[in-house]
Task: inverse folding
């Protein structure tokens, strides 16, 4: 078995690493931490200017024709650098879905705005009573001539306060099974009737509730067929599940290693020389390695022309659950000072382990909860019967 990457992937990785070392400054990281908005316009536009929002697309559509292995290296380096790149992920996801399922007009007008880094998107799927069961969506879109009138509420519309478009799942038909009565739109956020209310999570992330009241949307903003929204959703979801959090796990461990290397116990001995400390660090490191390999396996399968639906889900599930276990273990290692927040006097590892401990809790929720991931692996991967 050869685990080494082709030279062109390593070259691209080196280019990305150099770029990020220059542009992901301490100020960028601090700002994202302070606001809870993991998107930075300056950095986003620089990434867009490099052509990396569509790096994996064919050149004829404005992409760089990069392979899934190169794309994995790009994503991995971004997360390893600590860059706030939620916006990069969502913009790429919406643009890519429009490329596959959108109209010519959407491809000519909306996609270029997203790819140039001028327009940001957000995802309007989840509702108070439709999260994992997203097909239970109750936000209504009713046709009125050449327009649609949208009414409803979405939970957790992350980046809505920065976005120019919301990729909005609506119900257009009440007389068919729930999956068959959905329609997708890409709605400009400055349309009258859209209201954004902030939600600050315990994980330090800012998300939003969005309200839609008599929102009039022209039919040209519809993506896919009327009542064909489920197929569009499935296309978009393929781009969402991956092992992106591997980079956060590595950063967590780096902070813990640095803290243990610098710190001394009551008798003046280096903390890292304690075998029980080294055991915890080693455990986190082993989990990181497994997570890394699962991510690369999914990328390798994609590079071989297979859709790694189950393997991507395995990578997401393992990585996020390992992240929680490692954060739990490492914050415990730091003792009471581990509970102090970033910026507080005496905070272990300057509070970055504490921040990771809070943030990792949400990673097993969005992008498919752990239970949903296990269901996918059981049914599609292992062929077990469907749970009722
Ligand atoms: C910080 C944050 C940001 C988010 N950003 C966005 C966003 O930008 N856009 C967006 O649309 N959504 C977003 N979400 C929503 C996210 O996708 C949902 O929270 C997620 O899908 C779970 O839905 P829920 O919260 O309604 O929980 P529920 O679906 O109600 O689940 C509750 C519990 O029941 C379990 N459960 C549910 N169904 C099953 C089943 N079939 N089998 C076994 N167990 C099950 C779940 O695993 C979970 O433990 C975000 C969420 C968070 C926390």
Result:
């Amino acid at each position: 078995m050869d685990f080494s990457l082709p030279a062109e992937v390593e070259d691209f990785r080196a280019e990305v690493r150099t770029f990020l070392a220059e542009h992901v400054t301490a100020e960028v990281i601090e700002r994202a931490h302070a606001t809870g908005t993991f998107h930075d316009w300056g950095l986003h536009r620089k990434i867009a200017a490099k052509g990396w929002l569509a790096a994996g697309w064919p050149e004829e559509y404005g992409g760089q024709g990069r392979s899934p292995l190169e794309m994995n290296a790009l994503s991995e380096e971004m997360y390893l650098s600590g860059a706030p790149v939620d916006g990069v992920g969502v913009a790429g996801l919406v643009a890519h879905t429009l490329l596959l399922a959108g109209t010519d007009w959407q491809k000519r007008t909306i996609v270029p705005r997203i790819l140039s880094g001028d327009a940001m998107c957000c995802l309007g799927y989840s509702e108070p009573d439709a999260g994992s069961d997203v097909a239970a969506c109750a936000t209504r879109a009713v046709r009125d001539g050449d327009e649609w009138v949208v009414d409803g509420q979405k939970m957790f519309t992350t980046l809505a306060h920065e976005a120019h478009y919301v990729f909005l799942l609506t119900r257009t038909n009440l007389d068919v099974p729930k999956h068959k009565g959905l329609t997708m739109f890409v709605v400009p956020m400055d349309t009258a009737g859209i209201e954004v209310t902030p939600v600050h999570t315990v994980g330090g992330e800012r998300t939003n509730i969005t309200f839609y009241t008599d929102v009039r949307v022209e039919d040209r903003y519809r993506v896919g067929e009327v009542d064909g929204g489920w197929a569009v959703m499935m296309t978009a979801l393929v781009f969402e599940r991956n092992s992106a959090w591997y980079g956060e796990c590595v950063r967590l461990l780096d902070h813990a290693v640095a803290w243990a290397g610098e710190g001394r116990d009551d008798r003046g001995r280096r903390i890292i020389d304690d075998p029980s400390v080294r055991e915890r660090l080693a455990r986190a490191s082993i989990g990181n390695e497994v997570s890394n390999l699962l991510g690369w396996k999914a990328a390798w399968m994609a590079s071989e022309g297979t859709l790694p639906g189950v393997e991507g889900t395995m990578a997401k599930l393992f990585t996020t659950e390992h992240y929680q276990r490692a954060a739990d273990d490492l914050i415990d290692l730091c003792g009471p000072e581990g509970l102090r927040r970033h910026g507080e006097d005496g905070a272990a590892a300057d509070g970055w382990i504490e921040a990771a401990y809070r943030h990792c809790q949400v990673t097993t929720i969005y992008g498919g909860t752990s239970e949903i991931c296990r269901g996918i692996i059981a049914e599609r991967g292992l062929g077990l019967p469907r749970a009722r």
Q: What stands out?
A: Residues 246-381 form a domain with the Butyryl-CoA Dehydrogenase, subunit A; domain 3 fold (CATH 1.20.140.10).
